[in-house]
From TrEMBL:
GO terms for biological process: protein targeting. The lineage of its organism: Bacteria, Bacillati, Actinomycetota, Actinomycetes, Micrococcales. This is Flagellar biosynthetic protein FliR. Keywords: Cell membrane, Cell projection, Cilium, Flagellum, Membrane, Transmembrane, Transmembrane helix. One of its GO terms (cellular component) is plasma membrane. It comes from the Bacteria. Belongs to the FliR/MopE/SpaR family. Its main location: membrane. It holds the Pfam family Bac_export_1. It is found in: Cell membrane.
Length: 252
């Protein structure tokens, strides 16, 4: 029995798998180091096999130098799209960092080698919760679906127009900071008003040393009110997954 392979299809499969693997190495939730690199490679290859009939129909086989250049371009495209998704989901991590900073938890920060994250308690808690919610709410399927649709906006071997992803990253960075403030905003306002109240109390009665009492008070307020922010994380993760899908579908 003779087995024949279409060279153009094989090249398209390799290019698609390279883009997928580069994307999974950078984009959450697949970038978490708890997923072995071989699992990311197998997932990228499997999804490349799924989309290979569609991408191979419009793929034109170049020469050897052109194919090597296309491989490098696909790595850049996958990593760029993955970085764009990482920027979008960094809003939750940034919100946790703001809560840690204003709540007095920043001094207890530590480095998490699995998530490659340096932060305190709420930063790591929000990061781990967002990763779990991406799988529980099937948000990861939106991320994968957007990545698959990127092959329509950015055909194989065509490279990427840097003006579009740079503009998208600039907008995503601004949206990240805005979303972080919106997520942690109510709690930050309460903590700020607590500081103002303690300052006024110190002016009225300096002997009370109100700021010494402020640390346990701010910790109590943070632990009490952070539950409301934590309860809203499922809706926030769903909204961010939809935003990532729309960005990937447009090719960045």
């Amino acid at each position: 029995m003779a087995l024949t392979l279409n060279p153009a299809w094989l090249e398209a499969l390799m290019l698609a798998s390279v883009r997928m693997i580069a994307f999974f190495v950078v984009a959450p939730p697949f970038s978490y180091n708890g997923f072995p690199i071989r699992i990311k490679a197998m997932l990228g290859l499997g999804l490349a096999l799924a989309v290979s009939p569609r991408v191979a129909s419009t793929y034109k086989s170049p020469d050897t130098a052109g194919f090597i250049t296309a491989l490098v371009l696909e790595i850049v495209v996958g990593a760029t799209l993955g970085f764009l998704v990482m920027l979008i989901f960094s809003a939750i991590q940034s919100a946790g960092s703001l809560i840690d900073m204003f709540g007095g938890f920043q001094m207890a920060q530590a480095f998490d080698p699995q998530a490659m994250l340096n932060g305190a308690q709420f930063t790591r808690l929000f990061q781990m919760t967002s990763l779990a919610l991406l799988f529980v709410t099937d948000g990861y399927q939106l991320v994968i679906g957007g990545m698959i649709r990127s092959f329509t906006a950015l055909p194989l071997g065509g490279g990427i127009n840097l003006s579009h992803p740079i503009q998208a990253m600039t907008a995503a960075t601004g949206q990240m900071f805005l979303a972080a403030v919106q997520i942690a905003g109510p709690l930050l306002v309460v903590l700020f008003l607590a500081d103002v109240g303690l300052g006024l109390l110190t002016r009225v009665a300096p002997a009370l040393n109100a700021f010494a009492l402020g640390f346990p008070l701010k910790i109590f307020l943070t632990l009490t009110l952070a539950g409301a922010v934590y309860a809203a994380l499922p809706r926030i993760v769903a909204a961010l997954a939809g935003q990532a899908f729309s960005q990937l579908s447009g090719g960045g």
